Amino acid sequence: MPAPRKLPDAFFARPDVVTIAQELIGKYFFTSFDGILTGGMVVETEAYSGDNDAACHAHLGRRTKRTQIMYEHGGVAYVYLIYGIYSLFNIVTNTEGTADAVLIRAIEPTEGLEEMKLRRGLDKIETRLTAGPGLVTQALGISTHHNGTHLQGSEIWFEDHGKVIPEEEIVAGPRVGVAYAGADALLPWRFSLKGSKWVSKAKPKY
DNA sequence: AGTATGATCCAT
DNA sequence: TGGATCATACTG
Question: Quick one: pLDDT at residue A203?
Fold first, then answer.
């Protein structure tokens, strides 16, 4: 087993956001705040592809205060508040000027389980710990304050543990919560690890 | 300045 | 099936 290595900017700066979303399954996602390490293995992601994707916040080249971070060079965090309650964490991908991103929807927890349980307000470790995009951020202590954080720093980063996930172990399907996006809602841009109990329970509607 | 709406989650 | 709860984005 090779030593874990931090995923470099070059991993996220590639042009195909769908491939990046798929390859992130099996990688590791960590945060370290105040010396507390939390995180685990990525088991569910979604790709959002810039101005030609009706489900993407930057659809039709929309540039607002919220979306401007999406146009940065790959390798920084895009964190936004949804429904007034949950912070959703994305990785900006591709090069400067394009607005692609990958949403992290679920992880299999491996580090800091007790702390994550505490942050989530649960009394025992269960799949609700990190199975859902709003739950992952809560468990890892991520909020909108972390928007724009560089993923090579000491607070939020990804690692490759040399784990190889065969393609047949990855399930592709339509994204969750984007029914308003018309035909683009049908794109199979949600990826999850087959059989993992840590994948979110949410199901896309048509 | 007002308003509608969500890349969600959970209890009912 | 709806309520929580508010930043964002769009309208006038």
Answer: 75
The torsion region of residue A3 among left (phi > 0), alpha (psi -120 to 50) and beta comes to: beta
A104, A29 contact by CB (below 8 A)? yes
The answer to whether A201 touches A135, Cβ cutoff 8 Å, is no
Tracing tokens 């964490």 back to the chain, one arrives at: A89
Supply the range of the domain harboring residue A29: 5-193
Tens of pLDDT, residues A154-171? 999 999 999 999 999 999
Given pLDDT bands bounded at 50, 70 and 90, which one contains residue A59?
Answer: very high
The nt closest to A179 (CA vs C1′) is: B7
**CA→C1' distance for A59 and C5 (Å):** 26
The domain that holds A178 is classified in CATH as 3.10.300.10
In this complex, the answer to whether residue A83 has its CB under 7 A from any atom of chain C, a nucleic strand, is yes
- No. of H helices and E strands in chain A? 4, 9
Q: Does the nearest atom of strand C lie within 7 Å of A64's Cβ?
A: yes
Strand C: list positions under 7 Å from protein Cβ.
4-10
Instruction: Determine if strand C comes within 7 Å of the CB of A66.
Output: yes
**A108-140 pLDDT, tens per residue?**
999 999 999 999 999 999 999 999 999 999 999
What is d(CA A107, CA A45) in angstroms, rounded to the nearest whole number? 9
* Domains in chain A, number: 1
